[in-house]
Amino acid sequence: MLKIMALLTALIFPTLAIISNEKYFLGNIICSDNSENIDKISNKNYFNFILMIKEVLTGFFRIILVTLSGALLIAALLSDSKFMLGIEQFSGIKISYIIPLLLVLAIIWLKVNRGRLMILKNVKKPLLIEHVIIMTFFAVFLVIYISRSGNFSFLPVLSIEEKVRIFLEKTLIARPRNKEFLIGYPALFLAMSMNFLKVKEFKIPMIIIGTVGPVTLINTFCHIHTPFLFSMLRTFNGVGLGVVLGLITVTVFYYLVKIFREKTDYEKA
Known about the structure:
Number of helices: 13
Order of helices and strands: HHHHHHHHHHHHH
Low-confidence stretches: 29-45
Strand content: under 5%
Structural class: mainly alpha
Mean pLDDT: 81
């Protein structure tokens, strides 16, 4: 029973963390004109960099807090001595990595399409080259993501990745997961900045990739044989590095969007 409850927690909380903060991702799509939301703010301050950073950081830490509450719940559920000694282990690692991404995708799809599946309508649309690129990218991403999740992987670790791991272990003691601070958190920052700047292209795929961050965070606490304080330190290090890389990412993205729109006379269009 404890394993089932822990697994459900690992599935629900990363999903809840993203969906409960949907206004930071979909504010200019699903919110009405009369509500106070990011879309209204961004219309008045289209290139207000400081305001964008404030909104992105607020959304990010709200996501972290929701996810961390689920992580602490898992730690409490699996605090039995059998789990701590490794006699019993958390079951469903692969599932806990995949299902939240699918849940977020399904819920966001329904919200964007106003509760309609729109499957037949989208199937009838012509297949464009960008669709092929996106599907190919996601296929490769899923293969790598799934294979590198859990304790065993059929993909070898690159030499540069191994060097980064060793450096982080020596520097930070508790090395954060690479896919957490290198992929998940920067993608969350980017998705929220895309919403603020009203960039619709590739935003939903970026949200799904960003979900990897909360999923990886909560998975850290599923390895209950690891000391709790070590897991907390690993989480703190991951969030810290993720914020740094995320801020760098959105800063570059912000100015690229600004330059592009100024050159294409976006304001007059």
